[in-house]
Amino acid sequence: MKAVGQYFQNIDYHEEKNRRIQVMMPFQNNKKNLGGYSSYIMHDMPIHPDFEIEEDLIESENSIIYQQAENRMHVQKSLLLHLLET
Hints:
Elements: H1 14-24, H2 31-34, H3 55-58, H4 65-85
């Protein structure tokens, strides 16, 4: 079975996508849900701005999303090197 996430923009998936958005929007990371706290913002990517996380939070000064992605890239490279050496 294929992962449903890869059909996010597929027109055939439109009804299921809208159902999931309705269910999940109360849990969206946004300024209101943070309640004034200034916590670090992390995300494992890929991001669908304004769905699971408010776009303003992605680019905020508390966002470490891009550093997190860069660190993951370096770890993946080192794992590949290790696997190729064995």
